[in-house]
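Input.
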Amino acid sequence: SSNPVGINEIVPSFSSVYPNPAKDLITVAFDNMLAGGSVEVYNSLGKQVMKQSFTDSKEVKLNIEKLNTGTFYVYVKTTDGKIQSHRVVKVK
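Output.
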């Protein structure tokens, strides 16, 4: 048997983001306490606009008030290599 190279294992959902759409504050909530990692926010052009690291957390709050309106992608990256993305709409 052969294993495909470069294909990441599909990880079951371990986080959620609310509210969506959002005006000023979003919460990234984890299903379980996470030892560490980062939450990164990218705009629709793929440019990183925010990053916040965390340790021993069940949630991370981000103030997105200063971001332009539009669609953003929130990536949760854990220290053990899990990555999950969420699409968030920023409104006025």
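The chain has a mean pLDDT of 92.
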